[in-house]
Amino acid sequence: MNITTISSREFHQAVSAAKRAANQGPVLITEGARPTHVLMSFEDYQKLTMQRRSIADALAMPDISGIEFDPPQAIINAKPAGLV
């Protein structure tokens, strides 16, 4: 993993370069000599936090209409209740 360190000023002047560097590993953003922020790819962030979407979150997605979902029809054979 490649760790890049840039100053806050450099970050503001070259945001695109910092984003490209974040694809290779975390980017430490400093103020003075002290790290204050970390920039990383969203994929790395998800791995780090191990976030998983629930089915409710997935169904609440605004672009859900583009996902095909055709579950098989359930067949339920009901039997009359008998006396024991």
TrEMBL record:
Natural source organism: Duganella phyllosphaerae
Protein name (Swiss-Prot/TrEMBL): Antitoxin
Pfam families for the chain: PhdYeFM_antitox
Family statement drawn from the similarity comment of this UniProt entry: Belongs to the phD/YefM antitoxin family.
InterPro entries reported for this sequence: Antitoxin_Phd/YefM (IPR006442), YefM-like_sf (IPR036165)
Function recorded in the entry: Antitoxin component of a type II toxin-antitoxin (TA) system.
Top-level taxon of the source organism: Bacteria
